[in-house]
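Q: Focus on the chain.
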Amino acid sequence: MSASVGFTRYRIVEEDIPSTLWHEIEDRLKRNAFRDIDGSAEERSFGWVSFDNMLDPDFALCPPEKGPYLAFTLRLDTRRIPPAVMKKHLLVAMNEAMQAMREQGRKFVTKEQKAEIRDQVELRLRARTLPIPACFDVIWDTNRQTVWIASTQSKLTELFEELFTHTFGLHLEPLTPYFQALNILGAERKAELDDFEPTVFAQGGA
Protein backbone atom coordinates (compact mmCIF):
# COMPACT_ATOMS: atom_id res chain seq x y z
CA MET A 1 0.00 0.00 0.00
CA SER A 2 3.07 2.29 0.17
CA ALA A 3 4.20 4.46 -2.71
CA SER A 4 7.51 2.60 -2.80
CA VAL A 5 8.86 -0.42 -0.94
CA GLY A 6 11.89 -2.69 -1.00
CA PHE A 7 11.41 -6.46 -1.11
CA THR A 8 13.59 -9.50 -0.52
CA ARG A 9 12.45 -12.53 -2.50
CA TYR A 10 12.88 -16.18 -1.56
CA ARG A 11 12.00 -19.63 -2.79
CA ILE A 12 11.09 -22.61 -0.62
CA VAL A 13 14.01 -25.06 -0.71
CA GLU A 14 11.96 -28.20 0.04
CA GLU A 15 10.40 -29.74 -3.07
CA ASP A 16 7.92 -31.93 -1.15
CA ILE A 17 5.90 -29.92 1.37
CA PRO A 18 3.65 -32.04 3.61
CA SER A 19 0.00 -31.56 2.61
CA THR A 20 -0.93 -31.37 6.30
CA LEU A 21 1.03 -28.13 6.64
CA TRP A 22 -1.63 -26.05 4.88
CA HIS A 23 -4.19 -26.93 7.57
CA GLU A 24 -1.78 -25.87 10.32
CA ILE A 25 -0.71 -22.46 9.00
CA GLU A 26 -2.83 -20.34 11.35
CA ASP A 27 -2.01 -22.44 14.42
CA ARG A 28 1.70 -22.29 13.64
CA LEU A 29 1.53 -18.52 13.25
CA LYS A 30 -0.27 -18.20 16.58
CA ARG A 31 2.32 -20.36 18.35
CA ASN A 32 4.99 -17.94 17.15
CA ALA A 33 2.93 -14.78 17.41
CA PHE A 34 4.21 -11.42 18.62
CA ARG A 35 4.20 -10.91 22.40
CA ASP A 36 3.69 -7.39 23.75
CA ILE A 37 6.45 -6.01 26.01
CA ASP A 38 4.94 -2.61 26.88
CA GLY A 39 4.59 -3.61 30.53
CA SER A 40 8.09 -5.01 30.91
CA ALA A 41 11.71 -3.90 30.58
CA GLU A 42 12.61 -6.35 27.81
CA GLU A 43 14.74 -4.90 25.03
CA ARG A 44 12.89 -6.41 22.07
CA SER A 45 10.12 -8.76 21.01
CA PHE A 46 9.24 -10.18 17.60
CA GLY A 47 6.68 -12.51 16.07
CA TRP A 48 3.79 -12.81 13.62
CA VAL A 49 0.69 -10.61 13.53
CA SER A 50 -2.21 -10.17 11.13
CA PHE A 51 -1.39 -8.63 7.75
CA ASP A 52 -4.26 -6.17 8.22
CA ASN A 53 -3.78 -5.25 11.88
CA MET A 54 -0.51 -5.13 13.85
CA LEU A 55 -2.54 -5.38 17.08
CA ASP A 56 -3.98 -8.78 16.11
CA PRO A 57 -1.48 -11.57 16.97
CA ASP A 58 -4.36 -14.08 17.22
CA PHE A 59 -5.47 -13.57 13.60
CA ALA A 60 -9.00 -13.12 14.94
CA LEU A 61 -9.88 -10.24 12.61
CA CYS A 62 -8.38 -11.55 9.41
CA PRO A 63 -7.04 -15.04 8.54
CA PRO A 64 -3.76 -15.32 6.62
CA GLU A 65 -5.30 -17.11 3.64
CA LYS A 66 -5.82 -14.83 0.60
CA GLY A 67 -6.75 -17.15 -2.26
CA PRO A 68 -3.53 -18.95 -3.33
CA TYR A 69 -1.50 -16.59 -1.17
CA LEU A 70 -0.70 -16.43 2.54
CA ALA A 71 -0.32 -12.93 3.97
CA PHE A 72 0.97 -12.11 7.43
CA THR A 73 3.33 -9.63 9.06
CA LEU A 74 6.52 -9.83 11.08
CA ARG A 75 6.32 -7.33 13.94
CA LEU A 76 9.47 -6.28 15.75
CA ASP A 77 9.31 -3.99 18.80
CA THR A 78 12.61 -2.56 20.07
CA ARG A 79 13.46 -0.33 23.00
CA ARG A 80 16.16 2.22 22.20
CA ILE A 81 17.63 4.45 24.88
CA PRO A 82 19.09 7.63 23.32
CA PRO A 83 22.86 7.73 24.01
CA ALA A 84 22.64 11.23 25.49
CA VAL A 85 19.97 10.08 27.97
CA MET A 86 22.05 7.04 28.95
CA LYS A 87 25.16 9.20 29.38
CA LYS A 88 23.36 11.67 31.64
CA HIS A 89 21.75 9.11 33.94
CA LEU A 90 24.94 7.04 34.12
CA LEU A 91 26.87 10.15 35.19
CA VAL A 92 24.27 10.91 37.87
CA ALA A 93 24.44 7.32 39.17
CA MET A 94 28.26 7.35 39.19
CA ASN A 95 28.34 10.62 41.12
CA GLU A 96 25.93 9.20 43.69
CA ALA A 97 28.07 6.06 44.02
CA MET A 98 31.23 8.13 44.47
CA GLN A 99 29.54 10.21 47.15
CA ALA A 100 28.49 7.04 48.98
CA MET A 101 32.05 5.68 48.74
CA ARG A 102 33.55 8.85 50.22
CA GLU A 103 31.10 8.72 53.11
CA GLN A 104 32.34 5.19 53.81
CA GLY A 105 35.98 6.31 53.68
CA ARG A 106 36.70 4.70 50.31
CA LYS A 107 38.24 6.57 47.38
CA PHE A 108 37.07 4.88 44.19
CA VAL A 109 34.43 2.69 42.56
CA THR A 110 35.68 -0.69 41.34
CA LYS A 111 35.37 -1.87 37.75
CA GLU A 112 32.79 -4.48 38.77
CA GLN A 113 30.73 -1.84 40.61
CA LYS A 114 30.80 0.45 37.55
CA ALA A 115 29.52 -2.39 35.35
CA GLU A 116 26.74 -3.15 37.86
CA ILE A 117 25.75 0.53 38.04
CA ARG A 118 25.60 0.70 34.24
CA ASP A 119 23.38 -2.39 34.08
CA GLN A 120 21.04 -0.98 36.72
CA VAL A 121 20.77 2.37 34.93
CA GLU A 122 20.07 0.68 31.59
CA LEU A 123 17.42 -1.57 33.13
CA ARG A 124 15.74 1.37 34.86
CA LEU A 125 15.69 3.46 31.67
CA ARG A 126 14.42 0.55 29.56
CA ALA A 127 11.49 0.13 31.94
CA ARG A 128 10.62 3.79 31.36
CA THR A 129 11.07 3.68 27.57
CA LEU A 130 8.25 2.61 25.28
CA PRO A 131 9.25 0.08 22.60
CA ILE A 132 9.21 1.28 18.99
CA PRO A 133 7.10 -0.99 16.75
CA ALA A 134 8.09 -1.90 13.20
CA CYS A 135 6.12 -4.12 10.81
CA PHE A 136 7.32 -6.01 7.74
CA ASP A 137 4.67 -7.56 5.51
CA VAL A 138 5.12 -11.10 4.18
CA ILE A 139 3.48 -12.66 1.10
CA TRP A 140 3.74 -16.38 0.34
CA ASP A 141 2.70 -17.61 -3.11
CA THR A 142 1.71 -21.21 -2.39
CA ASN A 143 1.49 -22.08 -6.10
CA ARG A 144 5.03 -21.05 -7.03
CA GLN A 145 6.39 -21.52 -3.47
CA THR A 146 7.96 -18.07 -3.47
CA VAL A 147 8.00 -15.71 -0.49
CA TRP A 148 8.44 -11.94 -0.27
CA ILE A 149 9.19 -9.79 2.77
CA ALA A 150 9.02 -6.01 2.65
CA SER A 151 12.59 -5.38 3.80
CA THR A 152 16.13 -5.48 2.47
CA GLN A 153 17.86 -5.03 5.85
CA SER A 154 20.29 -7.92 6.34
CA LYS A 155 19.74 -8.26 10.10
CA LEU A 156 15.96 -8.21 9.67
CA THR A 157 15.96 -10.74 6.83
CA GLU A 158 18.19 -13.08 8.87
CA LEU A 159 15.71 -12.85 11.74
CA PHE A 160 12.84 -13.51 9.33
CA GLU A 161 14.53 -16.56 7.78
CA GLU A 162 15.15 -18.11 11.19
CA LEU A 163 11.61 -17.45 12.43
CA PHE A 164 10.08 -18.74 9.18
CA THR A 165 12.01 -22.01 9.45
CA HIS A 166 11.17 -22.35 13.14
CA THR A 167 7.46 -21.73 12.43
CA PHE A 168 6.89 -23.85 9.34
CA GLY A 169 9.81 -26.28 9.27
CA LEU A 170 10.74 -25.01 5.79
CA HIS A 171 13.93 -23.37 4.58
CA LEU A 172 14.23 -20.25 2.44
CA GLU A 173 16.76 -19.47 -0.28
CA PRO A 174 17.14 -15.82 -1.39
CA LEU A 175 16.26 -15.28 -5.06
CA THR A 176 19.35 -13.30 -6.01
CA PRO A 177 19.91 -12.25 -9.66
CA TYR A 178 22.12 -15.34 -10.05
CA PHE A 179 19.31 -17.73 -9.04
CA GLN A 180 16.79 -15.79 -11.11
CA ALA A 181 19.00 -16.16 -14.19
CA LEU A 182 19.49 -19.87 -13.43
CA ASN A 183 15.71 -20.36 -13.22
CA ILE A 184 15.26 -18.72 -16.63
CA LEU A 185 18.21 -20.30 -18.45
CA GLY A 186 18.02 -23.74 -16.86
CA ALA A 187 20.56 -25.86 -14.98
CA GLU A 188 22.30 -26.91 -18.22
CA ARG A 189 23.65 -23.36 -18.62
CA LYS A 190 24.91 -23.04 -15.02
CA ALA A 191 28.54 -23.29 -16.15
CA GLU A 192 28.08 -20.25 -18.42
CA LEU A 193 26.70 -18.23 -15.52
CA ASP A 194 29.56 -19.29 -13.26
CA ASP A 195 32.11 -18.18 -15.87
CA PHE A 196 30.65 -14.68 -16.35
CA GLU A 197 32.96 -11.83 -15.42
CA PRO A 198 31.85 -8.26 -14.64
CA THR A 199 32.18 -5.71 -17.44
CA VAL A 200 33.61 -2.29 -16.68
CA PHE A 201 31.76 0.29 -18.77
CA ALA A 202 33.43 3.40 -17.37
CA GLN A 203 37.00 4.24 -18.25
CA GLY A 204 39.24 6.53 -16.27
CA GLY A 205 40.67 9.65 -17.81
CA ALA A 206 44.22 9.92 -18.99
Notes: The chain is about 35% helix and 20% strand. The chain has a mean pLDDT of 89. The helical segments are 25-31, 83-103, 111-128, 154-168, 177-185, 190-195. The first helix runs from residue 25 to 31.
